Amino acid sequence: MIVKPNLTKLLKNVDSRYTLISVIAKRSREITGTDKTYVEPENANTVTTAANELAEGLITYKHGDVKDDQEEVDK
Questions:
Q1: What is Dmax (Cα atoms) for the chain?
Q2: Of 49, 51, 56, 59, which is most buried, counting CB atoms within 10 Å of its CB?
Q3: How many structural domains compose the chain?
Q4: CATH number of the domain to which 66 belongs
């Protein structure tokens, strides 16, 4: 469970809880693969680091990425 930053602050940067989870999960995987972060990690937990980046407005998202991936699957 994410305690800090709080859920209310995180939801101000996205349009739904589903988007919140998707954005944080995707960014967490990126951090795991590259070890590059936009904030100083407070701990080794990549999910918390991704949540902190989102709360500070350092990462953004755009809808449509999932659709593009789905089109590749359909081919």
A1: 42
A2: 51
A3: 1
A4: 3.90.940.10
66 part of a folded domain? yes
Residue 40 binned pLDDT confidence (cut-offs 50, 70, 90): confident
**Residue ranges in 1-75 assigned as alpha helix (H):** 7-11, 17-34, 46-55, 65-74
Which value, in Å, is the radius of gyration of the alpha carbons in the chain? 13
Taking a C-beta distance cutoff of 8 angstroms, is the pair 51, 34 a contact? no
Residue 2 included in any domain: no
In this structure, what DSSP letter does residue 9 have?
Answer: H
Residue whose entry in the numeric block shows the structure tokens 């305690």: 3
How does pLDDT run across 54-63, given as a tens digit for each residue?
998 898 888 7
For the full predicted model, state whether its pTM sits above 0.85: no
Across 14-18, 29-33, 40-44, 56-60, least confident range: 40-44
The answer as to whether 1 is a domain residue is: no
